[in-house]
Amino acid sequence: MPSCEPKTRFIPATCAWTLLLACTTLFFVYPCVSLFSRWGICVPVYQGVVTLFVVLNFSLATFMDPGVIPKASTDEDRDDDFRAPLYKNVEINGITVRMKWCVTCQFYRPPRCSHCSVCNHCIETFDHHCPWVNNCIGRRNYRYFFMFLCSLSIHMISIFAFCLVHVLDRTEHLTEVNTIVSMVVMGVIALLLIPILGLTGFHMVLVSRGRTTNEQVTGKFRGGYNPFSRGCCRNCCFILCGPQYPSIKRPAKYVGRYKFKPASSSPAPVSTITSQSQVRVYMDNGVQAPNSTAYSQDTAGLITQDNVSTVHVIWPDVHVFYPSAAPATSQVSLAAPQPTCASSFALAVRLSRSFTQ
């Protein structure tokens, strides 16, 4: 999708809001008054509830975070763009799903994630970028976009029907303002009703099949098994009543919200590393070495044992992680006891790619 200028991106959304609010206001000001005098308060109450539902879902689809995944910082995996393979495969429900490396965001896109060229972000469970809401439709706001389409279809059909009834009752007074406004509103709705009904039906089919617009257009899982489908009924229930996932666009607001409470109030005894069997080496891809309690031939030269109780890590590009403690520096001496460490802990030494290659 080609990128849009920042000044022109708001034009479709502005037109959509203007048409929705203008037609709804004209209906309530002119034909609804005559319908109220004939049928009572039922018509304005019903149409007011539908209008409120449309506006709320439209606002949530427009202003809610669709599931933006923050880009990697400049200090994080700065060399991965040149050394990482273009694709990685993961298995989901027995189906191999390919994850692609995003050159812009500098990470492997999760399954069903795609990079939006308009927003310039990777979106979780990317459906499409909708210019009429000026936002991407993704994992967090697809529910409200879908309910907006359904409620908008009901809203347009009901207003068209009420205006038609009003015009048929006032055939002898077609030159009145109420009748003219009713016919204008009916004309606008007639032009937009077929495309909106078609789009609503299209998304109903996608929801029942457990697919996104991006997957349908690109032909993914076409003629094959969809590992993300739960069945027709469960797919519909998941979209309408499923959990609302938190936004990871600003992860700082979730830090510190939940505090870890230790199982026992008494502090655990502190122990030190006394042999090589207490050190486990993990490669850069996160897969544990086949013999996790022993060093490989490549890593044996990195660690020198001066005596039984002292181990020195001397490779300058090694990252050391301690449970419940801050990360240590690249060159660490493990002779002194580390504070707040449990009695049975394993020191994880993670080697960088520059060493493995």
UniProtKB/TrEMBL annotation:
Stored InterPro entries: Palmitoyltrfase_DHHC
Designated name of the protein: Palmitoyltransferase
Transmembrane regions listed in the UniProt entry: 12-30, 36-56, 144-168, 180-202
GO molecular function: protein-cysteine S-palmitoyltransferase activity
Membrane topology: Multi-pass membrane protein
Family from the record: Belongs to the DHHC palmitoyltransferase family. ERF2/ZDHHC9 subfamily.
Top EC class for this record: transferase
Keywords: Acyltransferase, Membrane, Transferase, Transmembrane, Transmembrane helix
Domain remark in the UniProt entry: The DHHC domain is required for palmitoyltransferase activity.
Highest taxon above the source species: Eukaryota
Catalysis performed (reactions): L-cysteinyl-[protein] + hexadecanoyl-CoA = S-hexadecanoyl-L-cysteinyl-[protein] + CoA
